[in-house]
Design goal:
Number of strands: 14
Shape: globular
Number of domains: 2
Structural class: alpha/beta
Strand content: 15-25%
Strand order of the largest sheet: 4-5-6-10-11-12-13-14
Bound molecules: 2-phosphoglycolic acid, zinc ion
Order of helices and strands: EEHEHHHHEEHHEEEEHEHEHEHHEHEH
CATH topology of the largest domain: TIM Barrel
Largest sheet: 8 strands, mixed, barrel
Radius of gyration: 21 Å
Length: 412
């Protein structure tokens, strides 16, 4: 692979905030010999794009999303077109891992704060696409071959009701999720029917930032009663939440509606909810550094309901391995932009599966129309994918890509 030109620009995400988009122009040479130049072996030109999402309820241990003082990404864009472009165009590349390794070394910081995780990840995804095109295979297949994984359809975690920081706390938890099992086409059909039925029940309510309904209720229980009714109507579905508890913490206790819960009381609340409703998983039940509380809840809910780390593990292979030693969780959210390269996101999936845990790949609350996460989830054989509600185009595009992959996989 010979990269000839690198372009970057700021584009708006779903919140209208700028994020990084990259275009790579290259000469692809299947079976390229290291010493031969592209023109000697007759390479063909290929261009790929990638854009990166942006979180709002971020963990403090995430890789650094480089922002200018005014919130822009002009420095990150300039880093791609300057230093990164020079490094990419200076030599030939044999694999996407080689490129990611070089980007990580070029940045030289533990959290990608010099060049920006947003700059590096956009390049890393576009580079992965170049190599898929060079090998003439679908993106998910190239990822599976790179990762040494068995590809397969993830469960759909559909965020049907949005709360927390994604909806001005109209609902106390950040995400009320319907988990849909089975073949993507069957799971998506159930999600669509349940989402529309919920919409009809709720009537005219605001939407949240992730394309789910955002009603208000008097009590903590009511949204779960609605979800349980959907589960009863739609086979192969169950309930999950993302508590995003970092955002609930205030002076050592967690605020839900007008109540304050000490960690022990919050633990009892989760145990009570999981015993009364058909729960599949609870994400970030406590704040990002409350490892002992995670471990106690995981033990208490073993066999009943998964405990998922997000801000707690931040897609960081070392933090996941540490959580494994502590038996702190039973599933891990995988967000490539929390770590900043495809290579390390694959390593995070490896660490997750090495612990015997489920990997749930995830979009962010600020999204673009890039559907990489769908190919990534399918390629690494993730147990789940979180891609938001069905009320926003950029969320639907991820599900539509999964439906396309289902067809591609049958044809391969
Ligand atoms: P974020 O939220 O993208 O705003 O961080 C998603 C999540 O917490 O899972
Ligand atoms: Zn989360």
């Amino acid at each position: 692979m010979k990269i000839e030109r690198v372009e970057a620009r700021a584009i708006p995400d779903t919140r209208g905030k700028p994020t990084v988009e990259v275009t790579l122009h290259a000469l692809c040479i299947p079976g390229m010999h290291k010493e031969a130049t592209a023109s000697e072996v007759g390479g063909h030109p290929v261009s790929t794009h990638a854009s990166v999402p942006s979180g709002k309820s971020t963990g403090s241990h995430e890789a650094c999303e480089l922002r200018d003082a005014d919130g822009g990404v002009e420095t990150a864009v300039a880093n791609v077109e300057g230093e990164i472009a020079r490094a990419l165009c200076a030599r030939k590349w044999n694999s996407p891992d080689e490129i990611d390794g070089a980007l990580i070394a070029l940045d030289g910081t533990p959290n990608k704060s010099r060049l920006g995780a947003n700059a590096i990840l956009a390049v890393s995804i576009a580079a992965q696409r170049l190599f898929a095109q060079e090998a003439n295979v679908p993106l998910w297949k190239a990822i599976a071959e790179r990762a040494g994984t068995t590809p397969g359809a993830p469960r759909l975690y559909v965020n049907v009701m949005n709360g927390g920081v994604h909806a001005d706390f109209r609902l106390p938890f950040q995400e009320y999720i319907l988990v849909c099992e089975g073949r993507t086409s069957a799971a998506f059909a159930a999600a669509r029917a349940a989402f529309d039925a919920l919409g009809a029940t709720l009537g005219n309510v605001p939407m949240g930032e992730e394309g789910g309904y955002s009603p208000t209720f008097e009590t903590l229980q009511e949204p779960f009663e609605l979800l349980a009714a959907l589960v009863a109507e739609h086979a192969g579905t169950s309930i999950a939440i993302d508590a995003a508890a970092n955002e609930l913490l205030s002076e050592g206790a967690y605020r839900l509606l007008a109540e304050t819960y000490a960690p022990d009381a919050l633990m009892r609340l989760y145990e009570d909810l999981a015993s009364r409703f058909p729960f599949h998983s609870i994400e970030d039940p406590f704040s990002e550094d409350a490892g002992a509380d995670f471990a106690r809840l995981t033990a208490a809910l073993r066999g009943t309901c998964l405990v998922v780390g997000d801000d707690f593990t931040v897609t960081n292979p070392a933090r996941i391995a540490h959580a494994a030693r502590e038996e702190a969780i039973s599933a891990v959210l995988i967000k490539p932009n929390q770590i900043g390269s495809v290579k390390e996101a694959i390593e995070a999936v490896e660490a997750t599966h090495a612990a015997g845990w489920a990997a749930i790949c995830s979009h962010r609350s600020g999204e673009t129309d890039d559907t990489f996460i769908a190919d990534f989830a399918y390629g690494v054989g993730a147990e789940g994918i979180k891609a938001g509600g069905l009320g926003q185009k950029q969320r639907l595009e991820k599900y539509e890509r999964l439906l396309e992959i289902e067809k591609e996989a049958e044809a391969v």
